[in-house]
Structures are given as C-alpha cells and as structure tokens.
Design brief:
Length: 110
C-alpha cells in the first residue's frame, strides 16, 4: 500500500503554516520540497505542522534539513510543530534536533 503525503497551506501575515499528513519518506519528500519551493518565504516564519505525520525516514529528514537551509537563505525561520514521537526519536538518533526550532505546543483548553 502506497501512502501519499497530504499538504495544506495557511498563509497569515508574517507566517505560513504547512500541515503535513501521512508519511514523509523517499517517495513523498519531493512533494514537500516542491511545496516549499513554490512559497514566498522571504523574511517569513514557516511552521511545519507534523502532528498528522505517521512516519519520517532519512529522506524525509534530509528534506527537512534542505527546507531549513532554503528558508534560512531567504531570511526566514523554520519551526517544526507537534512532532510525533517517531520524528523526535529520529532527530535525537541523528543528532539533528538542535538544528531545528521546535514550536511550543498549543495550550490545551482547561
């Protein structure tokens, strides 16, 4: 079974939120690269909402690193939000967690 990567974009003043769903792997990471290449990231914050990502492999991580570099060159900032456990573990195992800004989780209603 081949899963796809869903992408949804929300643009706000100074902020772009790209919500990913599904697997970010060898087959789907080019879609993330294409999506971020088509966005105006000049001086903006790009938040990748990863709460619905079910799996990230080394190709997905390489793409996240490339997106980080791309937005940095454009004078913007990349934030990763709501990373699932598997993604955090991958960042820890590869020693790349400190290369990313992890967005604070949204407060839960009381």
């Amino acid at each position: 079974m081949h899963l796809t990567l869903g992408l949804a974009v929300a643009v706000r003043p100074g902020l772009t939120v790209l919500t990913l769903t599904g697997d970010l792997d060898m087959d789907t990471s080019p879609y993330l690269a294409e999506a971020t290449d088509s966005l105006d990231l000049q001086g903006r914050i790009l938040t990748l909402d990863l709460s619905a990502v079910t799996f990230i492999d080394s190709c997905g991580l390489t793409t996240l690193l490339a997106v980080r570099q791309h937005i940095g060159l454009a004078g913007g900032t990349l934030k990763l939000a709501d990373l699932p456990y598997q993604a955090l573990r991958l960042l820890d195992l590869t020693g790349t967690r400190d290369l990313f800004t992890l967005a604070e989780p949204a407060p839960t209603p009381s």
